[in-house]
């Protein structure tokens, strides 16, 4: 077993740092399992949304609400943040802590941008269409699904920010490498969910 | 750290248990909490049966009856049966795979405390204005109309404890995937480990659906959303689906570990290896898989249409096949064996015909067109108590008695065990057999009373008498436990004499690190293999060295407490001014604890080789 | 006195015991005494499946008893180690295939019956004339049932009246701010839920089913079949019973025409006084007293009382006599917790109760 | 366990690994390009009125699925070995998810 306290260099840094210790391996496995569960969680929300997507109860319908440029911008931000977190992992494997931190920070900023757009969007719906979480079953399903995703984004931002700050002065180790790795997995998963959200909620909603 | 079991003060013991991350101690916590909730649920069952003993009884009022009924089902399933199974899993599974620990000791403790606080929260409803009263299924239309906070207690309590269950499931999965000793391949794992594995996978995929179902209902009740509000386009049938997408796998989450327990006990007391090991594994996985494709059999009368009903009927019946494979494998395990009727063995053999009775009525229920008659009658009540009590509760009794010496180092009194068995067995059949007929004679379930002159009086009375037999049996077990803890004698590593699996290769109770040296596994029934080869114990797979242990922590307790507090805030959000701040306080506690957890490095500690050697010489006889 | 009581008890005990032994329950309530085509079909499925299950149980039990008796560890065998059998493919195939075959035997009739029971095309048929197929709209309400014969504009409550020996079709509804109930007449056929927001007028989410009432067996079962609510719907779920009267087609037609032409008339003075009270106290705002209730379904918030004088129960569960009516009117909560009538009208004194009771008892439709 | 590299000379190994990582990163960027492309196609398909309506929904869902496979296999490294359990559990989740969505889009009653 690799000793956590060993002095690490680019040479002896393992190829898969996230799985180099037993703790890391457990974290890695456990997190993938968790993502399996999350899949079902989001599927339940998607399914509910699909069942209620036409239940606008006389209020705003999806066709009236959604607007392509906004969704497209949000999508681009989040997709790009997925790539930047891949860059971070790339630098982690190369034992380049500084660059890894930098790309993680970029990821957070992009995610923040996404979140701001989403908040703006919700605010817009509420004020211009009187479309709220209580106004119709569609509203409930929409805000719950998209909002749950948004909460995941927000949580991910807090999590990654904590990681960045906490480890800023300690450098990369086999103790925190799995943490970064798992956080980036989480971030990708958020992106996966978003791909379905923009397709099923927004694009399908515009088609009608 | 506390390697040696010194005499400690009450406070120290309490602190030890509050902060423990040792799976063996967490097992004891689960056993105590789950056992307590079993008594509570059993007491509620007795109240149900007293109320229904005679027609037009007014022992409890209609509203209170519905509360008792709901709490009985909810408590038994979520707070008694599952936690008690977790107790045995925690106590045994790491040992069975030759692991020093579970994959996530910290999360293991968090899982327990979430369950515990969720359960306490739910039961506090009794004292805070009334318990939930919409049935354990809490169907949306009734649950939304239900007045007071009962249903809110249900929703929040289950949400919190469900989170704990999910965490426990992930922990067992990761443990079994990553922590097996050298040589312990998947196809050498004892069946209890296998069934824990599959049941945990079911937890992983089923509980999120419950989480969503409960959340939507909670939003409707607390925040006025419209998922189930038909006036705004909502649809209550969605809730039914979400509940049963969770609910059906849930019954296999309960029964698969039970199957595992019997699969471990039967070989030991017939001194024969499990017949058809690989088909047992296959059947377990298949049941788990099919378990996700049948949920709508609880909704045959909802009006899904004949196509859906027919598909789900056929899919449901298919589960009889792998289950049958198991039944016959068990029978042929004892066939040709040398059976010793210890009390765990009595429970195990009694399980076989009892469970088959329950299983076959399940297949009858699966016949959609006929289920229009059975549905929501006592026939269903009879079915599921036959499988749950005859399967799960029997296994809990069997497993608890069987592993008691491993957990506590003392053997329960066998005579009293057998008295418990006989009384419970009689009471069980007396109570539930006749309920099949009650259902067929036209008695709906969930009724607080029935009128005379409908031909239901006598059978209901018989059923009530049976329940008291079960109560007597349970009380005798309690006496036995007290008696044993005072008088019982210490036992060795393998007190039953014929142990086959790894847990019997270590001390009773095991040292905190389980295995001083990780064992080398050379076949199915690892210990038996060594015994047959004439070895005294397991061959170690590694030289003696320092053992890495995790640190205890109070944070899991605090995180759970935070959610407990926040739940009260959410519940009383509209009633009291202090409630809203309470939500925030609760979340700050929880997230604060999470924050500390993530910024404080916890590398654990080591038990040094020298200390291990010293202990070997001095500590033990 | 004491002696008589014990004797009587003993007798009823015996009666109950014979019933248990006969194992069929009461003919007006039991699914084991089917009295119509649907229940017959379901009964046949029950019998078939029970037979299969008995075979399964018998096989398991025989093997079970054999192994448990035969392979006990006897004295002197303490050190025996039996052969460690790994498995046996032939056996394993046998106990995989045979259950599959047994299940196939069961699935075929199950699927066929499921589709047969779902055949309600007759309701939707555009050319259907009222006589062709009787369609009853069933409305479940918190703890009472309404039955509407929309083709005739006739409404009745608590007691369903149907013609025998022909298919009767049902639309099942429950209002949107209601809770879910389930409509069940055990000896006639299985149940079906009345989902929330099922609305016959709007044509949404309505469950449909058919039943058939056998004339001969209806006679044997007595005057009424018992119907029940089979879905937990609140405190008085247990008391949400209704009665079913199955009569010949001729009688049914006559009944319908009497219903169509009926008018509530109070005859005695006391009844007239009651009629007046019925208006003064606001009863009339919820309860209609003629079968031709023109209000929309959602506005019919209480049982129609047009046939109340001929009923067999008060509020579905109390014996139909004057005392029960008085009791009910005095304090409905005591008899049906959480019902929707409690507290909706001013307190009634004894005289008012007498008058109302007299009036209500006089509400009849049939001529005899 | 820590030393997964088999080569005796860590320096050579390091160069090799660096190169491999860089190559992989190039693949990742290409993957990203494809994902962006698929996204744009989906948005255009929806915004464009000429295409048959019936065709749009299955088409954009297919695009989404392809894109997600990219995410999983490249960004989340599921194509690497050591991901057997990850794949097993993720796809089990997907299986349950698919059943749920299928049920809710068909038999939920209207
Ligand atoms: C441990 C719990 C448990 C288990 C194991 C099962 C097992 C099964 N259950 Fe049960 N069930 C419940 C717990 C359980 N159930 C509960 C709690 C409810 C009610 C919930 C509520 O509404 O509150 C319920 C309700 C329920 C219903 C809904 C009834 C209704 O509400 O109308 C149905 C319908 O299909 C059903 C079917 C089955 C089937 C087919 C099995 C099968 O898995 C059984 C398989 C086993 C055998 C068949 C026996 C052994 C096999 C052989 C010896 C081989 C040969 C056999 C044949 C050829 C038949 N169950
Ligand atoms: C694990 C699950 C489980 C278990 C073990 C049981 C165990 C029992 N159940 Fe339960 N039951 C359910 C799950 C379970 N049940 C569910 C899910 C429902 C449906 C709820 C719903 O419809 O929503 C239900 C419903 C249900 C009903 C139907 C109620 C109705 O529909 O109106 C009945 C009626 O007889 C019943 C009876 C019993 C009895 C007699 C036992 C006995 O086996 C209990 C035996 C145990 C004891 C008797 C304990 C003895 C306790 C003491 C002696 C107390 C001592 C106290 C101290 C020392 C503090 N149960
Ligand atoms: Cu209506 Cu139960
Ligand atoms: Cu089920």
UniProtKB/TrEMBL annotation, chain A:
PROSITE patterns: COX3
Main location: membrane
Parts of the chain that traverse the membrane: 31-52, 72-90, 102-120, 140-165, 185-205
Protein name: Cytochrome c oxidase subunit 3
Species: Metabacillus niabensis
Pfam families in alphabetical order: COX3 (PF00510)
Membrane topology annotation: Multi-pass membrane protein
Subcellular location as annotated: Cell membrane
The organism's taxonomic lineage, starting at the top: Bacteria, Bacillati, Bacillota, Bacilli, Bacillales
Family: Belongs to the cytochrome c oxidase subunit 3 family.
Automatic annotation (TrEMBL), chain B:
Membrane-spanning parts: 27-48, 68-93, 105-128, 153-179, 191-219, 242-262, 274-295, 307-332, 344-370, 382-403, 415-438, 458-483, 554-572, 578-600
Membrane topology: Multi-pass membrane protein
Lineage top rank: taxon: Bacteria
Localisation: Cell membrane; Membrane
Cross-referenced Pfam families: COX1 (PF00115)
Keyword Heme applies: yes
Involved pathway(s): Energy metabolism; oxidative phosphorylation
Domain Cytochrome oxidase subunit I profile positions: 9-522
Keywords tagged on the record: Cell membrane, Copper, Electron transport, Heme, Iron, Membrane, Metal-binding, Respiratory chain, Translocase, Transmembrane, Transmembrane helix, Transport
Catalysed transformations (reactions): 4 Fe(II)-[cytochrome c] + O2 + 8 H(+)(in) = 4 Fe(III)-[cytochrome c] + 2 H2O + 4 H(+)(out)
EC number: 7.1.1.9
PANTHER family: CYTOCHROME C OXIDASE SUBUNIT 1 (PTHR10422)
General function of this protein: Cytochrome c oxidase is the component of the respiratory chain that catalyzes the reduction of oxygen to water. Subunits 1-3 form the functional core of the enzyme complex. CO I is the catalytic subunit of the enzyme. Electrons originating in cytochrome c are transferred via the copper A center of subunit 2 and heme A of subunit 1 to the bimetallic center formed by heme A3 and copper B.
Assigned protein family: Belongs to the heme-copper respiratory oxidase family.
Protein name as annotated: Cytochrome c oxidase subunit 1
TrEMBL record, chain C:
Keywords from the named record: Copper, Electron transport, Heme, Iron, Membrane, Metal-binding, Respiratory chain, Transmembrane, Transmembrane helix, Transport
Places the protein is found: Cell membrane; Membrane
Main location: membrane
Residues in the signal sequence: none
Cytochrome oxidase subunit II transmembrane region profile domain boundaries: 23-121
TM stretches of this protein: 46-69, 93-115
UniProt-listed Pfam families: COX2, COX2_TM, Cytochrom_C
Swiss-Prot/TrEMBL cofactor(s): Cu cation
Membrane topology designation: Multi-pass membrane protein
Keyword field contains DNA-binding: no
Enzyme Commission number, as recorded: 7.1.1.9
The Cytochrome oxidase subunit II copper A binding domain, residue ranges: 131-258
Cofactor remark from the record: Binds a copper A center.
Top EC group: translocase
Keyword Transmembrane helix carried by entry: yes
Record's catalysed reaction(s): 4 Fe(II)-[cytochrome c] + O2 + 8 H(+)(in) = 4 Fe(III)-[cytochrome c] + 2 H2O + 4 H(+)(out)
Domain Cytochrome c per the UniProt entry, residue ranges: 269-364
Protein family (similarity comment): Belongs to the cytochrome c oxidase subunit 2 family.
Functional note: Subunits I and II form the functional core of the enzyme complex. Electrons originating in cytochrome c are transferred via heme a and Cu(A) to the binuclear center formed by heme a3 and Cu(B).
Protein name: Cytochrome c oxidase subunit 2
Organism per entry: Metabacillus niabensis
UniProtKB/TrEMBL annotation, chain D:
Annotated keywords: Cell membrane, Membrane, Transmembrane, Transmembrane helix
Alphabetical list of InterPro entries matching this protein: Cyt_c_oxidase_su4_bacillaceae (IPR014257), Cyt_c_oxidase_su4_prok (IPR005171)
Record membrane topology: Multi-pass membrane protein
Pfam families: COX4_pro
Highest rank taxon of the organism: Bacteria
TM stretches of this protein: 29-48, 54-75, 87-109
Subcellular location: Cell membrane
NCBIfam families associated with the record: CoxD_Bacillus (TIGR02908)
Protein name (record): Cytochrome c oxidase subunit 4
């Amino acid at each position: 077993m690799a000793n956590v306290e060993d002095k690490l260099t680019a040479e002896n840094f393992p190829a898969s740092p996230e799985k180099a210790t037993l703790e890391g391996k457990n974290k890695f496995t456990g997190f993938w399992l968790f993502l399996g569960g999350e899949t079902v969680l989001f599927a339940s929300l998607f399914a509910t949304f699909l069942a209620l997507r036409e239940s606008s109860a006389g209020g705003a319908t999806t066709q009236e609400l959604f607007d392509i440029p906004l969704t497209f911008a949000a999508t681009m931000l989040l997709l790009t943040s997925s790539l930047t977190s891949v860059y971070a992992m790339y630098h982690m494997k190369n034992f380049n802590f500084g660059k890894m931190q930098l790309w993680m920070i970029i990821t957070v900023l992009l995610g923040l941008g996404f979140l701001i757009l989403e908040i703006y969007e919700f605010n817009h719906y509420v004020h211009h269409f009187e479309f709220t979480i209580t106004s119709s079953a569609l509203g409930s399903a929409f805000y719950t699904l998209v909002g749950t995703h948004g909460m995941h984004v927000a949580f991910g931002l807090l999590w990654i920010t904590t990681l960045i700050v906490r480890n800023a002065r300690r450098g990369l180790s086999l103790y925190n490498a799995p943490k970064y790795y798992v956080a980036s997995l989480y971030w990708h998963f958020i992106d996966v969910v978003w791909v379905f959200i923009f397709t099923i909620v927004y694009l399908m909603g515009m088609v009608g | 750290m506390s390697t040696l079991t010194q005499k400690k003060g009450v406070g120290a013991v309490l602190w030890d248990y509050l902060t423990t991350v040792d799976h063996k101690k967490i097992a004891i916590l689960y056993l105590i909490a789950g056992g307590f909730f079993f008594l509570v649920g059993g007491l509620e069952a007795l109240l149900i049966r007293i109320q229904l003993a005679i027609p037009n009884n007014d022992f409890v009022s209609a509203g209170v009856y519905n509360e008792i009924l709901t709490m009985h089902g909810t408590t038994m399933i979520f707070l008694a049966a599952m936690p008690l199974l977790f107790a045995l899993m925690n106590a045994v599974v790491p040992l069975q795979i030759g692991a020093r620990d579970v994959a996530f000791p910290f999360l293991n403790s968090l899982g327990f405390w979430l369950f515990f606080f969720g359960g306490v929260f739910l039961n506090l409803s009794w004292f805070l204005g009334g318990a939930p009263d919409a049935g354990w299924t809490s169907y949306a239309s009734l649950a939304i109309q239900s007045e007071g906070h009962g249903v809110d207690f249900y929703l929040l309590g289950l949400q919190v404890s469900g989170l704990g269950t999910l965490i426990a499931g992930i922990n067992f999965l990761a443990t079994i995937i990553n922590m097996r000793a050298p040589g312990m391949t998947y196809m050498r794992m004892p069946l209890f480990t296998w069934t824990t594995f599959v049941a945990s996978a079911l937890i992983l995929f089923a509980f999120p659906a419950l989480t969503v179902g409960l959340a939507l209902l909670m939003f409707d009740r607390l925040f006025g959303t419209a998922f189930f509000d038909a006036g705004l386009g909502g649809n209550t049938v969605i809730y039914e689906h979400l509940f049963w997408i969770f609910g059906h796998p849930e019954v296999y989450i309960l029964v698969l570990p039970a199957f595992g327990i019997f699969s471990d006990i039967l070989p030991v007391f017939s001194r024969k290896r499990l017949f058809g090991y690989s088909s047992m594994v296959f059947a377990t996985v298949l049941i788990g898989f099919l378990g996700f494709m049948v949920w709508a059999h609880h909704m045959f009368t909802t009006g899904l249409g004949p196509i859906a009903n027919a598909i789900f009927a056929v899919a449901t019946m298919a589960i009889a096949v792998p289950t049958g494979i198991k039944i016959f494998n068990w029978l042929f395990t004892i066939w040709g064996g040398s059976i010793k009727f210890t009390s765990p063995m009595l429970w195990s053999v009694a399980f076989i015909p009892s469970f088959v009775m329950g299983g076959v009525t399940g297949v009858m229920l699966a016949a959609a067109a006929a289920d229009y008659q059975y549905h929501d009658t006592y026939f269903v009540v009879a079915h599921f108590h036959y499988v749950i009590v005859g399967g799960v509760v029997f296994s809990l009794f069997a497993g608890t008695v069987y592993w008691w010496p491993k957990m506590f180092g003392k053997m329960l009194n066998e005579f009293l065990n057998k008295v418990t068995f006989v009384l419970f067995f009689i009471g069980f059949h007396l109570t539930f057999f006749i309920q099949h007929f009650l259902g067929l004679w036209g008695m709906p379930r969930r009724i607080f009373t029935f009128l005379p002159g409908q031909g239901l009086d006598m059978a209901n009375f018989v059923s009530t008498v049976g329940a008291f037999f079960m109560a007597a049996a349970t009380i005798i077990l309690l006496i036995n436990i007290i008696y044993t803890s005072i008088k019982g004698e210490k036992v060795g590593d393998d007190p039953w004499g014929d142990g086959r699996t790894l847990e019997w290769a270590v001390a009773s109770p095991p040292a905190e690190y389980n295995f001083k040296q990780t064992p080398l596994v050379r076949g199915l029934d690892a210990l038996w293999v060594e015994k047959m080869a004439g070895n005294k114990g397991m061959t170690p797979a590694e030289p003696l060295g320092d053992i890495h242990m995790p640190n205890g922590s109070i944070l899991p307790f605090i995180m759970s407490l935070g959610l407990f507090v926040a739940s009260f805030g959410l519940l009383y959000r509209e009633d009291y001014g202090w409630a809203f701040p309470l939500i925030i306080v609760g979340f700050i506690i929880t997230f604060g604890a999470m924050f500390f957890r993530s910024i404080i490095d916890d590398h654990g500690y080591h038990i040094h080789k020298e200390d291990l050697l010293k202990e070997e010489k001095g500590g033990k006889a | 006195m004491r002696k008589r009581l014990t004797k009587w008890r003993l007798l009823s005990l015996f009666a109950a015991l014979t019933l248990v032994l006969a194992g069929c329950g009461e003919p007006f309530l039991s699914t084991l005494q089917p009295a119509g085509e649907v229940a017959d079909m379901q009964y046949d499925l029950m019998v078939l499946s029970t037979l299969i299950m008995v075979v399964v149980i018998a096989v398991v039990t025989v093997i079970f008893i054999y192994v448990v008796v035969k392979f006990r560890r006897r004295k002197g065998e303490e050190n025996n180690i039996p052969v460690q059998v790994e498995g046996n493919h032939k056996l394993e195939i046998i106990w995989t295939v045979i259950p599959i075959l047994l299940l196939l035997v069961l699935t075929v009739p199950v699927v066929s019956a499921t589709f047969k029971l779902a055949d309600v095309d007759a309701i939707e048929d555009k050319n259907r004339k009222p006589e062709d197929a009787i369609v009853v709209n069933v409305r479940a309400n918190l703890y009472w049932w309404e039955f509407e014969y929309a083709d005739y504009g006739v409404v009745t409550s608590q007691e369903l009246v149907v013609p025998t020996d022909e298919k009767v079709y049902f639309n099942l509804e429950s209002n949107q701010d209601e809770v879910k109930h389930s409509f069940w007449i055990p000896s006639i056929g299985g149940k079906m839920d009345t989902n929330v927001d099922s609305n016959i007028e709007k044509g949404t989410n309505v469950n449909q089913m058919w039943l058939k009432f056998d004339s001969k067996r209806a006679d044997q079962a007595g005057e009424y079949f018992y119907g029940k609510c089979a879905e937990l719907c609140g405190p008085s779920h247990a008391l949400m019973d209704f009665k079913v009267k199955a009569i010949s087609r001729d009688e049914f037609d006559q009944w319908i025409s009497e219903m169509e032409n009926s008018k509530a008339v109070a005859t005695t003075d006391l009844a007239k006084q009651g009629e007046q009270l019925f208006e003064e106290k606001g009863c009339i705002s919820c309860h209609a007293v003629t079968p031709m209730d023109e209000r929309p379904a959602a506005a019919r918030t209480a049982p129609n009382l047009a046939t109340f004088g001929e009923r067999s129960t008060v509020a579905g569960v109390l014996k139909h006599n004057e005392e029960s009516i008085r009791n009910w009117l005095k304090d409905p909560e005591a008899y049906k917790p959480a019902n929707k009538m409690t507290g909706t009208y001013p307190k009634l004194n004894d005289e008012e109760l007498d008058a109302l009771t007299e009036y209500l008892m006089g509400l009849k439709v049939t001529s005899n | 366990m820590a030393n997964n590299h088999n080569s005796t000379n860590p320096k050579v190994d390091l160069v090799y690994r660096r190169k491999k990582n860089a190559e992989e990163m190039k693949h990742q960027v290409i993957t990203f390009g494809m994902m962006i492309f698929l996204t744009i196609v989906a948005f255009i398909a929806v915004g464009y009125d000429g295409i048959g309506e019936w065709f749009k929904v299955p088409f954009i869902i297919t695009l989404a699925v392809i894109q997600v496979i990219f995410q999983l296999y490249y960004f989340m490294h599921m194509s690497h070995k050591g991901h057997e359990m990850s794949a097993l559990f993720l796809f089990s989740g997907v299986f349950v998810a698919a059943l749920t969505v299928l049920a809710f889009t068909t038999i939920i009653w209207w």
